[in-house]
Amino acid sequence: MKETRPPHRIMQILTPALPVVMGYLPIGFAFGVLAVNAGLSVFEAVAMSVIVYAGSAQLMAVSLFEAGINPFSIVATTFIVNLRHLLMSASLAPHMKNWRKVEVAAFAFELTDESFGVHSLRFEHGENQPGPTLGINFICQLSWVVGTLLGTLAGGLITDVKPFALDYALPAMFIALLILQIKGGRYLLVAVVAGVLSIVIWLVGVTQWNVLLATLIAATVGAGVETCTERR
Amino acid sequence: MYRTTVMLTLLGMSLVTYLPRLLPAWFLRGRELPPFLVAWLRYVPVAVLAALLVPSLLVSDGTINLHWNNLYLWAALPAGVTAWKSRSMFLTVLVGMAVIAALRLILGL
Hints:
Chain A is mostly helical. Chain A is 76% helix and 0% strand.
């Protein structure tokens, strides 16, 4: 697999970014449509995609704006919804040891569920060079912002992306990322514990915390089992 | 007045989103961490992905749906087999989307 460098480098960025782009364009579009319908201006909607850049929190914020909820509650909800990124940031930290501070700062700004999924796999394969990593992030956010802009401009013209099945791009990507992450029995155990807990916690009604709590507990189970078995 | 409030809210959202994304990477990256924490961090990706994915496949319109009409769930089977066999994210996404599109066409959903 020795290829010439320049095209290889471009592919290093485009190949991992493509599934995210296919998912972000239509969801960004849907967000743009909803934001304008909720009374936000085109500028405000696009600004949110540029400076917040967090899909589920943005969609939630739009419905809160529409319902006339006070700004403080909107910010607090955003904080809770996005708190799960703490864990993602922590788990990627060891791979950024030799990065410059500005690179870490730029990377963190564009850390989403999807970019995390992509990078957690790349980093483990030793592909943690800041250049391509930030390139992937930039393309992903660009597609999110472009999707938002197109959505705000199209308004109510097109709201349904279902005929193209684009709404399944991100779930399918997560299926692949999850399966590629299962590198043995302990990983499978952690995945099952996390999946079951996430849905149980959601069912109990703690719907904003399910991902964070399930991850905390499941990763602890994994590390605990590993520590115990390796002591023997 | 209201427009200013909206922009301030966006700035607040930006800040509370950015800090949790930044601080752990910023402070943990240069450190020698205890072995348990290192092991713990290694299991975070698989746990996060499972915790995000399972509800997205099982829940539709705010309730758990295990019925045949939950296409997200059933399309996960061929997509999962594709991921397992091919180890390719791109191929998995293509198969997943193709199955969803075909099912919608056939079932008229």
